[in-house]
From TrEMBL:
<comment type="similarity">
    <text>Belongs to the short-chain dehydrogenases/reductases (SDR) family.</text>
</comment>
<protein>
    <submittedName>
        <fullName>Decaprenylphospho-beta-D-erythro-pentofuranosid-2-ulose 2-reductase</fullName>
        <ecNumber>1.1.1.333</ecNumber>
    </submittedName>
</protein>
<dbReference type="InterPro" id="IPR002347">
    <property type="entry name" value="SDR_fam"/>
</dbReference>
<keyword id="KW-0560">Oxidoreductase</keyword>
<dbReference type="InterPro" id="IPR020904">
    <property type="entry name" value="Sc_DH/Rdtase_CS"/>
</dbReference>
<dbReference type="InterPro" id="IPR036291">
    <property type="entry name" value="NAD(P)-bd_dom_sf"/>
</dbReference>
<dbReference type="GO" id="GO:0016491">
    <property type="term" value="F:oxidoreductase activity"/>
</dbReference>
<dbReference type="Pfam" id="PF00106">
    <property type="entry name" value="adh_short"/>
</dbReference>
Length: 251
């Protein structure tokens, strides 16, 4: 069960090798989390992540999970919830894709959409049902500022995150009053494996900063978290710019 400050004792990460997710888990293990499930595509990276968390004192198990195989989500998550209550599900999987390449190869673009959006619709609904059945818990969804307004430079990824964000908000409203809390996290540019080698955007941040914001959001039971917080104002302004102006911005 969560403590009086809303921090979890047990958690499940969907996308178990995500740098943002692992920074968050390390932070929560340093607080109160004891049981960690890392769900992801089996790989040496997943095993290493589990081993490192064990080194911090957590009891860690891995489970095979592929966002692109929604038919397997029920069984994968069912295995985890059958072992005991889960206080926090962190939906962290996602791919950035390669915009220029994916515009030329529509099937690659579809893969981005299926991973980030339809994979999350399936896993999110399965997780929500299990959390609702136990009567408590949080579902934290890693969305992105990229979903706030589609940019020329990455509208394939951006549109998948827009869909994910809208889905997670609606799910949060559907679960309001059930004891299950949904928190949408919108980071800007985060220095992680996903953005390695890319030119940094303004207000770039780190996985650790996202982890800090997630912890604070859990304590406050927030519904939306921007990282860094200043992006809320920036994006609110950008969102309302006329298309003709927005199109010319170097974003
Ligand atoms: N980095 C940023 O600038 C940024 C900004 C805003 C939002 N985000 C979002 O934050 C989340 C985590 O990103 P990150 O920066 O931590 O990147 P990351 O380290 O590259 O993590 C991405 C995760 O997604 C997993 N994944 C990809 N395809 C999958 C699939 N088909 N099935 C299961 N897992 C799959 C990867 O697993 P494998 O090890 O199997 O590849 C990895 O665990 C993503 O949703 C991302 O869109 C990132």
């Amino acid at each position: 069960m969560k403590d009086a400050f809303g921090l979890p004792q047990s958690l499940l990460v969907l996308g178990g090798t995500s740098e943002i997710a692992l920074a968050t888990v390390r932070r929560l293990v340093a607080r109160r989390t004891r049981t960690v499930w890392l769900a992801g595509r089996p790989s040496p990276g997943l095993d290493t992540a589990a081993e490192q968390l064990r080194g911090l004192g957590a009891e860690v198990r891995t489970v095979a999970f592929d966002a692109l195989d929604p038919e397997s989500h029920e069984a994968a998550l069912g295995k985890v919830f059958a072992e005991g209550d889960i206080d926090l599900v962190l939906l962290a999987f996602g791919i950035l894709g390669d915009q220029a390449h994916d515009e030329r190869e529509p099937l690659n673009a579809v893969r981005v959409a299926q991973t980030n959006y339809t994979g999350a619709v399936s896993a999110g609904l399965v997780a929500a049902r299990s959390l609702q059945a136990q009567g408590h818990g949080s579902l934290v969804v890693l969305s992105s500022v990229a979903g706030e307004r589609a940019r020329r430079a990455n509208f394939i990824y951006g549109s998948s995150k827009a869909g994910l964000d809208a889905f997670a908000q609606g799910l949060g409203d559907a679960l309001h009053g059930t004891g299950v809390h949904v928190m949408v996290v919108r980071p800007g540019f985060v220095r992680s494996r996903m953005t390695e080698g890319m030119a940094e955007a303004p207000l770039a941040t780190t996985p650790e900063a996202v982890a800090t914001a997630i912890e604070l959001g859990l304590r406050r039971r927030s519904e939306t978290v921007w990282v860094p917080g200043a992006l809320r104002v920036v994006m609110s302004a950008l969102r309302h710019l006329p298309r003709t102006v927005f199109r010319r911005l170097p974003v």
